[in-house]
Amino acid sequence: MIAAGECGITVHAEAGMHVLVVEDDLDTRDLLQHALKKEGYEVSQALGVSDALRLSRMHPDIDVVVMDMHLCCRQSIEEITREIRRCLHNSHYVLASGDWDTLESRCRNQRDTTVLRKPYGKQELLRAIGRSVARLSLGDSYKRHD
């Protein structure tokens, strides 16, 4: 069960909800996969942005992308998410960053994006994904500007 924010919505990981974890650290990636699978999510792992793009083309059913933003020093946040959105039209994004203030201000108007402050724990991760799942479950539609 995942609490989806302060609004009091409780969301169960729905069968078939697919999460893509983009993380370059193997131990962190494995911990995230274990925690998410334990909650009932299907999980794919990507080593970096190019791997995430490859997997997003192979699995257009991915619902939520969890991405560690320190991987993305060559491209802007907007460029990376725009590339992934081309393959994953209805996905939601959880972007983890130690530079939370900058990232939050840049993503403020993107209704399909949640910013997760690093370091974070399991409960913060699950709440962020829960908010994304709740938006998917409620059927929010988003305009994409590619």
TrEMBL record:
Tagged with keyword Phosphoprotein: yes
Xref: SUPFAM superfamilies: CheY-like (SSF52172)
CDD domains according to UniProt: REC
Residues annotated with 4-aspartylphosphate modification: 68
Keywords noted in UniProt: Phosphoprotein
Pfam families hit by this protein: Response_reg (PF00072)
Keyword Phosphoprotein: yes
Span of domain Response regulatory: 18-133
Protein name per the record: Response regulatory domain-containing protein
Source species of the chain: Dyella nitratireducens
Upper classification of the organism: Bacteria, Pseudomonadati, Pseudomonadota, Gammaproteobacteria, Lysobacterales
